[in-house]
UniProtKB/TrEMBL annotation:
CDD domains assigned: HATPase_UhpB-NarQ-NarX-like
Official protein name in the record: Oxygen sensor histidine kinase NreB
PANTHER family per the UniProt record, alphabetical: NITRATE/NITRITE SENSOR PROTEIN NARX-RELATED, SENSORY TRANSDUCTION HISTIDINE KINASE
Source species taxonomy: Bacteria, Bacillati, Actinomycetota, Actinomycetes, Micromonosporales
Organism: Actinoplanes lutulentus
Database matches in InterPro entries: HATPase_C_sf, HATPase_dom, His_kinase_dom, Sensor_HK_TwoCompSys, Sig_transdc_His_kin-like_C, Sig_transdc_His_kin_sub3_dim/P, Sig_transdc_His_kinase_ChrS
Catalytic activity field: ATP + protein L-histidine = ADP + protein N-phospho-L-histidine
Coiled coil: 177-204
Amino acid sequence: MLATAEQEGSVRAREAWRTWLPYGTLVISTALVLAVGPNFVDKPPVWAILSVSAAAAAWIAFWITGHPQWEKRRGPMLIFLTGMIGFYALMVWMHPLFGFFTWTGYLFIGLALDGFWRLFGVLPVASIAALSQVGGVPTLSAEGGYIFWGFAIALNVLIAGVMFYVEIKTEKNSIRRAQVIVELAEANRKLETALKENAGLHAQLLVQAREAGVLDERQRMAGEIHDVLAQGLTGIVTQLEAAEAGAAGRDHHLTAAKRLARESLAEARRSVQALRPQQLDGTDLPDALGEVVQTWSQRAGVNANLTTTGVPRRLLPEIEATLLRTAQEGLANVAKHASAGRVGLTLSYMEDVVTLDVRDDGSGFDPEQPREASEEGGYGLHAMRERLTRIAGSLEVESEPGGGTALSVCVPAITIGVAA
């Protein structure tokens, strides 16, 4: 908008110059010619001077003042410029003092010609102006007259050419600047539109992220409740049933049931607070897993052992907690479904991943037909996969009826330091 206002102001200024300057210089030139005596030749008759001056003024009035809209049409302006050059030549031939008026030809060149074509219009106007400067037509017959005229033409062409060249470059820069401003305005408009669209998308993404977070938290809590409460309550029920079945070892089963109740209660509280499993508080993952395996073996009466390979190192808390929960769930499934006599766990630290394998020699099952989740169970494998998916882990299950079961867990080895 600033560039447009600037251009409009420049156009109005040029129009004012073109309106008043030609008439003013014509009046002054005519007055000078009438006031002074003859120059090298007899002064033309007054009626001839006034007639030619009036005709030139009428020519300007018709083409410029009377039809300003023609200024944007190159055809009429070329006719106008050609006529003006004729008037300039005639008037300077009549008297060299009309050279003051011929200077306006440089203004009219800009109306008729564009760009560097204006330089071609400079030559005839400069030639006529140079003729008036050397004293008019009579001086040409003097010795060296044409040489002086040629020198004056060259000087006029050089000065006018430089002026037009600067003006042309300035106009081009103005046009380029105006185009840049228009392009910037369009870019700003598109940017505002994009920002509005992005704001809407951002709000939509926030809603979706919030909903996804709620769903993820529900799934996490479901898995934690299953791991903590379901396993703990199952163990308690098992111990109480064993105590109720016979007097032998009754106190041992009751003690185990109490211990399971306390551990499950503590784990439930920690799960609600989204903390690490109790076994990992101040303990490395291999030691925590070893404690889980040993406790489970004593409680279930099944021979179980843990083997660790590679160099143990501290992993992100979420990864260690997921591995521990997966081991607990795998052992719980063995106790509930496998009727196994031996269980082996292998924790392997590799360069980029950490794997956990849980193998048993139990009854096995068909992985193509897993148990459906119900009040009786069947949620374990699904919960393990959901938990592992949250940390970019994977779970593979190999089993067949009567052939035992092998769970293979793989998680990224994202460390927070090397274990001592």
